[in-house]
Structure formats: C-alpha cells, structure tokens
Amino acid sequence: MGRVVASASMSLDGYIAKNDNTIGRLFDWYENGDVEVPTATPDLTFHLSPQSAEYWRQWVSDLGALVCGRTLFDVTDGWGGRHTMDVPVVVLTHRVPTGWVQAHPDAPFSFVPDGVEAAVAKAQEIAGDKIVAVAAGTVAGQCLELGLLDEVAIDLVPVVMGKGRPFFGGLSTRDVLLGNPTVCIQGDRVTHLVFPAIRGHDSANG
User: Fold this and answer.
1) Is 201 part of a structural domain of the chain?
2) CA 184 to CA 151: how far, in whole Å?
3) Which pLDDT belongs to residue 173?
4) pTM for this one?
5) In this structure, what CATH number is given to the domain that contains residue 22?
6) How confident is the model over 173-196, as a mean pLDDT?
7) Which residues span the domain enclosing 24?
8) Could you report the per-residue pLDDT of 50-60, keeping only the tens digit for each?
C-alpha cells in the first residue's frame, strides 16, 4: 500500500481556511510564479515558482486517491465530478448526495459512511502503491489520532489569519508528536514541508 499523507496549505497560526470556508491569501502561491502548470480543470492553470512547480508535479504524479469530508465536498460541489488533480475521491459522509451522484454518473467518487478507517482503506484499495492524500481538517485529525497517517505535508504560507479552521480540526487533549521534516523546499511566499508520522510507540503527552 502507498503512503497516507495529510496535506494542505496552512497559515502560520495553523489554519487551512476561514470559518466561512473561504481561504483568504492561502492560495496566493499558486499564482505568483512564471511556470505554467495545467490542471485537470480546463479553466484552471497554476503559475508557480520553479521550486513549487517541481514539488507540485512530483506530488501529483505520486497521488492515487484523495479522502475528504462532506464539508469540503459540498464547498467545492465535488469539483464538478473531476478533482483538480485528476484522482479518484473518497468522501466520508453519512448522507450520500444521491442527486449529485445521479447528475455525475461517470465521476470517480466513492461515498463511505462507515468511518474514517473504512474511508482510508477504500482509498488505499483504489490507489494501490500510490499516495492517499487526506484533506486537512476533521478527517485529517481523526486519521492522526488513529495512527493512520504516514506523513503530514504542509504548504506553509506566511500569513496570520487569527482564527479559522485548524489543519487537524479539533484534536483530543493529548499531543501527537511528528518526526523531523524530511522535505523543506522554499518557494515564493510558501515553504513546502513534509513531516513523518511517528508510529509504534506512545507519542502522547498528558
């Protein structure tokens, strides 16, 4: 099975979106460079710095499936049936959007009501040896606490938001320790960081 990686752009104070799910300046780095990077969305082309473009292309080429929650699915309207990174999507939800499914019969989306472990297992089945990306937020927090993550990938943006939606949602009172970063790439107004998750021993304090 491939690695399970929680990934998102994040502010310096730990937020991935505002409380109304808008993203403020978090995605500025997608448009502040000279390298054109097309996506699976026909009218969306990124303009990245050379360092970010190389990192992005490697990430997308290694990706096999995405796990997200119902909030992100609703905010994006399921990306119109085709994710920007052109990968199958597993949505963790207790309410299957029947109307959306009927309107997008060919969309590579799966809806899993049986909890985050079942959603990750489904995504791993789909992805094979490729990476399963877990969207940041509540689902990523559940994966972290359950020991399902192999890595945490953060596109750290030098902006302070003050409040919003945390990268890991609401964790329990314990601390979860990650390893030293294995990737640190400086882009333009973004730093790409990858931290290994620590498995096999108690990483909690308190």
Assistant:
1) no
2) 14
3) 62
4) 0.92
5) 3.40.430.10
6) 93
7) 4-196
8) 999 999 999 99
